[in-house]
Amino acid sequence: MSHAGFCFRVPDVLESDKLKLVPFDIIKHATYMCGTPASVFDYLPTGPYVTPDDFVATFWDNIAIPNKGAFTTFAIFDKTRSDSEDAKSFAGMASYMNASAIDLCVEIGFIVILPAFQRTHVTTHMVGLLGQYALNVPEDGGLGLRRLVWQCSSTNAPSIAAAKRMGFQYEGTLKWARVLKVGKGSGGNGRDVREGDPKKEQRGRDTTILSICFDDWEGGKREFFKEKMARKA
Asked: What are the φ/ψ torsions at residue 100 (nearest 5 degrees)?
């Protein structure tokens, strides 16, 4: 599948020497998302997925398609594991989301890195490829956006650390930014809602916001990304 309907033009392949990002194809790739440990989805609104149909119903039809103008998803393949786009090299998925062609901004989010690929080069190269394409100007092969965003639960320390390792800068915290689904309390803020709350059984989430903006990019973050992606480990 292509990135049809997304507000920005995105190539069918973004790749480095170690990683390849392609449009997520539910026919080819949904099965690879099944059987992943539940803990991988602690901070996400859907998952784990038992079957491809479960993935399509809860993520694709409920999140990706309704927001397709501002949301597009990539399948991640580790080129160091296999030259083919197969189960052996499938490392997870990531999305551009909350995209705005009017405001020239996009967020990297809904990231799922499978356990076998965590603490490797995969996250660095995934963020590197998506960041470079978003922030490089068109004459350098990018979109020329002004703002690249990273948002996550304020209790998701690994996600915040990953963003900071890639040079994202903390901007602030939104209190009570989201109502979590029942069973998705890991990302909760740990505080009680008031008496009479209409969704008292659902925890609340505080959201940490980080970003890299175009002036940060021109001020050294571009080179920082290149250095991170050039490391052997």
From this structure: -140, 115
pLDDT for 45-103, tens place per residue?
A: 999 999 999 999 999 999 999 999 999 999 999 999 998 999 999 999 999 999 999 99
**Sheet architecture: strand order including 147-153:** 14-15, 19-23, 72-78, 90-100, 105-113, 147-153, 204-213, 169-179
| Radius of gyration for the alpha carbons in the chain, expressed in angstroms and rounded | 17
3-state DSSP call for residue 208?
Answer: strand
- Angstrom distance (rounded) from CA 149 to CA 171: 10
Q: Write the CB contacts of 223 (distance below 8 Å, at least 6 apart in sequence).
A: none
Q: What crossing angle do the helices spanning 157-165 and 122-135 adopt, rounded to 10°?
A: 60
SS3 percent helix, strand, coil of the chain, rounded to 5, is: 30, 25, 40
